[in-house]
Amino acid sequence: MQTFRYIILGAGPSGLALAHTLRDRGVPLSEVLVLEKEITAGGLCRSEIVDGAPLDIGGGHFLDVKHKDVLDLLFRFMPESEWNRHERVSKIHLRAQMVDHPLEANLWQFNTETQVDYLESIAQAGCVRGTAAPESFAAWIRWKFGERIADDYMLPYNRKIWSMDPDLLGTYWLHKLPNVSFRETLHSCIEGKPYGSLPAHGVFLYPKEHGYGEVWRRMAEALVDSIQLGVDIQSFDLATRTINGTWQADHVFSSVPWHAWLNWTTLPDAVRDDINALCNVGIDIDYIPETLDSQAHWIYEPDEELQHHRKLLRSNFSPGARGYWTESNHQRSQAADGWRHTNPYAYPVNTIDKPARVSRILEWATTQNITGFGRWGTWDHMNSDIAVKNAIALGIATAVNTR
Ligand SMILES: Cc1cc2nc3c(=O)[nH]c(=O)nc-3n(C[C@H](O)[C@H](O)[C@H](O)COP(=O)(O)OP(=O)(O)OC[C@H]3O[C@@H](n4cnc5c(N)ncnc54)[C@H](O)[C@@H]3O)c2cc1C
Questions:
Q1: Best of 33, 35, 40, 44 to mutate for ligand 1, by most ligand atoms within 8 A of CB?
Q2: Are residues 45 and 161 in the same domain?
Q3: CATH code (residue 143)
Q4: Taking residues 319-347, what's their average pLDDT?
Q5: Would you give the end-to-end CA distance of the chain in angstroms?
Q6: What's the domain range around 278?
Q7: What value does the mean pLDDT take over residues 150-170?
Q8: Which of 99, 97, 148 is nearest to 122 (CA)?
Q9: Ligand 1 proximity of 45 Cβ (cutoff 6 Å)
Q10: Would residue 96 count as lying in a domain?
């Protein structure tokens, strides 16, 4: 039996950032163990070489530049000189035209007829007329964008990503959408330029070589003997926090999907029911060798005739690369005829009852000296910079409390 002060489950960005922060704050690495089921660390942020160039197997991954503490940590392993800085070019493919994202800030790029259709749509939307925001997802989308934009773009795109009835989704997370006022939309159409707040990743970093996965691979390598890859967890003894009868910890940090816990141990009925009710979306990544004639880094595809919902044009962000890859909800995918990687856990789904269920699971976990964190520990649709930021905060608080 090997004993540790802390065992961290999962070596994605969250687990790796937590392990390094604990070390930075004075916890000896000999008291920390990271256990990861895959043979490569990095979670959804891993990359592979496909057709001679890096491909991000969890989907298109770009590093937002907003958080200095996050950049400081990542630059220790992959210095700033190894990253390229890009100004985001993301397009929406709609009515046989390509316009910049977000749609409401860029209607001016459409032909006149479509501009009029979509301006009318927003002018008649509930949020512009001052009616109260509805509770259900589909009604909220109509309230926010009006009928035309909802039917042409927002609802088909969301049906494609989630492959479920939109009304099972909550609206509590929609504040994350770029918020462009009707007045800003009018300005943009009259003046022929975008108006309003920029979406996330307005400016982003992407490695010059190796793909987004490289920084996480190096972070894992630096943990030396304090990380074990390719571990198949089979059992967890709740009374002693012992894993596979081999590794025991005072405290466990879990960044793995809660569903895994159902196979490891017997949980109280209420906790098991809450975990069973959590939903996730799987995403297939398919590589296509053709290099597209476009400046876009990525293109959103709301057309429901197409299997995928997004194209990632790696030739525009990974130097020397050709081709592109697509992202499709696994449930919509047909059999692949080229390179494919399936991510069964890609998006946590924001169902209406999710916040209450997650907070009950986390409360119970706390009583067992287990902390849920990261994308799957909190079932929250966060980007990797936020996953790292949260893990740094958790590491600092843990080191202070146990000093
Ligand atoms: C399509 C897509 C696009 C994205 N684009 C961006 C982007 O542009 N920029 C950005 O910053 N973020 C992006 N993200 C989000 C980013 O992937 C996540 O924020 C980040 O990966 C979260 O890190 P994590 O460590 O919490 O979770 P994960 O990366 O999911 O890591 C969890 C780890 O737990 C491991 N694990 C699972 N089960 C077990 C088990 N039973 N035993 C042991 N280990 C286990 C997994 O193998 C994995 O290594 C995107 C995500 C998706 C799906």
A1: 44
A2: no
A3: 1.10.3110
A4: 96
A5: 25
A6: 2-88+205-401
A7: 93
A8: 148
A9: yes
A10: no
For residues 332 and 292, state if they share a domain: yes
Reduced to 3 states (helix: H, G, I; strand: E, B; else coil), residue 162 is: helix
Task: CATH number of the domain at 266, please.
Answer: 3.50.50.60
Examine the domain organization and report whether 25 and 84 are in the same domain. yes
Residue 10 Cβ inside 6 Å of ligand 1? The answer reads yes
* 321 Cβ below 6 A of ligand 1: no
Nearest Cα residue to atom 1 of ligand 1 = 59
Residue 89 near ligand 1, beta carbon < 6 Å: no
Overall number of domains in the chain: 2
What's the CA gap between 226 and 368, in Å, rounded? 23
Mutate which of 7, 45, 219 for ligand 1? The one with the most ligand atoms within 8 Å of its CB, which is 45
In a shared domain, residues 116 and 241: no
Express each pLDDT in 62-84 by its tens digit. 999 899 999 999 999 999 999 99
Tell me if 15 CB under 6 Å of ligand 1: yes
Strand partners, 328: 284
Is ligand 1 within 6 A of the CB of residue 387?
A: yes
Sequence-separated (6 or more) residues with CB below 8 Å from residue 225: 29
Judgement on whether residues 210 and 186 belong to the same structural domain of the protein: no
- Overall residue count recorded for the chain in this entry: 403
Ligand 1: centre distance to CA 96 (Å) = 33
User: In the numeric block, which tokens belong to residue 329?
Assistant: 């909800």
Same domain for 230 and 374, yes or no, is: yes
Backbone angles phi, psi at 305, to 5 degrees: -70, -25
259 and 123 within one domain:
no
The residues near 257 (Cβ < 8 Å, ≥ 6 apart) are 278, 280, 345, 376
Residue 166: pLDDT over 70 = yes
Asked whether residue 266 falls in the same domain as residue 380, the answer is yes
pLDDT at 235: 98
Task: Give me ligand 1 centre to Cα 387, in Å.
Answer: 9
Residue 291 — pLDDT band, cuts 50, 70, 90? very high
Read off the pTM: 0.96
Distance 257 CA to ligand 1 centre (A): 10
Q: Which two tokens stand for residue 361?
A: 């699971």
Cis peptide before 102 (omega within 30 of 0): yes
Kindly state the tokens that stand for 255.
């960044």
Does residue 199 register a pLDDT over 70?
Answer: no
Task: Among 143, 167, 191, give the residue marking a domain's end.
Answer: 191
- Determine the distance separating the centroid of ligand 1 and the alpha carbon of 379, expressed in angstroms: 11
Tokens of 10: 């999962």
